[in-house]
Amino acid sequence: MVQVEKSVVINRPIEEVFAFVTNPENITMWAGPVKEARQTSEGPVGIGMTSIRITEFLGRKSEDSYVVTEYEPNRKFAQKATSGSLQTTEIMTFKSVEAGTKVTIAGEVEASGFIKMAEPVFARVAKRQFETDMSNLKDILEAQVEVIA
Fold first, then answer.
1. Which domain does 9 fall in, by range?
2. Total count of domains within the chain
């Protein structure tokens, strides 16, 4: 199993950061491997909401379904893959700090097949990708005058 965690402080109010991050369509703006994403269930974001992501990572393209497993407005957002090549769990926590909002993303990936054999390499690449994604998120949110929710 590969576990990765990264935090970043974003100079924006917690409500704006949480709304932006939890909108499944916004992930393509800051998470490099995600090429397309959309909500597949009806209603607002919350526990049980489903979405699909089309990703390209390490030269492999996949379509993965996700379900939201935890949802605490402005505090916590968690989801897990329900289909796809990797069993992924992502937990994002949000905390108001003096400089804005501290966002922490913790991910776990249960690899199999080719990825399992190359797990040490995969772990290093995943860590770098998390760092890049969080930097992208910070840059996008701090540059916007009005955040797209």
1. 2-143
2. 1
Side-chain-side CA neighbours of residue 90 (13 Å): 20
Residue 15 lies in a domain: yes
Burial of residue 48 (CB within 10 Å: 0-12, 13-18, 19+) is exposed
- pTM exceeds 0.85, yes or no: yes
- The DSSP code for 59 is T
- The Cβ of residue 120 has, within 10 Å, a number of other Cβ atoms equal to 9
Specify which residues 38 forms β-bridges with.
52
Query: Can you tell me the distance from the alpha carbon of 2 to that of 87, in angstroms, rounded to the nearest whole number?
Result: 11
Residues, the chain: 149
Cβ atoms of residues 130 and 23 within 8 Å: no
Q: What is the pLDDT along the chain (149 residues), one digit of tens a residue?
A: 788 899 999 999 999 999 999 999 999 999 988 999 999 999 999 999 999 999 887 677 889 899 999 999 999 999 999 987 678 899 999 999 999 999 999 988 876 665 666 677 777 888 898 899 999 999 999 997 555 55
Q: In what order do the strands lie in the sheet with 100-110?
A: 2-10, 100-110, 87-97, 76-83, 60-72, 50-57, 34-39
